[in-house]
Amino acid sequence: MTSLIGRTRERGVETLSLDATGTRNALSAPLVAELAGALTDCARDPDVRAVVLTHTGGTFCAGADLRDPPAPDAFVALLRRLVELPKPVVARVTGHVRAGGLGLLAACDITAASTASTFAFTEVRIGVAPAVISLPLLPRTDPRALSRYYLTGERFAAPEAARIGLLTATADDVDAVLAPVLDGLRKAAPQGLAETKRLLTVRVLEAFERDAADLTALSARLFASPQAREGMTAFLERREPAWVL
């Protein structure tokens, strides 16, 4: 079976690349399972100081794979694994991010994107809601901005993503921005990184403990609904869904 996650290592930094360009790195059940396994390997490996999550192709992640989606609880487990990993996770984005891909970004500790990247919460346009991705998003981003972008599904640019707290930084050359970040992580003690990350993720993990079960159930219910079936069919057929005025 072809791997969906590329893996390289340089001076203690493990780079995991979403590598399903045929589906624009959509979150399929196999991709979610393979990424979760790779993160588990990184957690157990004492030679891994930090993880970079990046992508091949022009899209970081197109959201859920509508033909082969992961179970909602499997995706929640992946998001939680990113948050709980005892090593910093740095997102490197040089392309577009949609829907569930924004949940991946929110679950990372440091996020940087090129100025050419674009973002959108497209769930409402297919009849569902950004349910489980709200677990890491709501504690970390501007709630008024989320109200706009959740409800409209409109696209926004990298500077706006940085303003609302989705990104740590944006620049034309994202690697130049991340070079001092990775150097800093390499200089930090593993224990110091793990315990500092634990301090920083308290509120996010509280959201998982409080809301994960309810949001997982909501996601499953919405994806099984008649409106979602119409929305997903319209998306796959490249037409407007029936409710568009």
Binned, the helix content reads 40-55%
Shape: globular
Instruction: Write out the strand line-up for the largest beta sheet, numbering strands in chain order.
Output: 1-2-3-5-7-10
Count of structural domains? 1
CATH architecture field: Alpha-Beta Complex
Plain-language structure description:
By secondary structure, the protein is an alpha/beta fold. It has one domain: 2-enoyl-CoA Hydratase, Chain A, domain 1. It has helices spanning 29-44, 72-84, 100-107, 134-140, 143-152, 158-163, 174-187, 190-200, 202-223, 226-237, and strands spanning 5-10, 13-18, 50-55, 59-61, 89-93, 96-98, 110-114, 118-120, 156-157, 169-171. Strands 1-2-3-5-7-10 form a 6-stranded mixed sheet, with helices on both faces. Strands 4-6-8-9 form a 4-stranded mixed sheet. α1 (29-44) packs parallel to α2 and α2 runs antiparallel to α9.
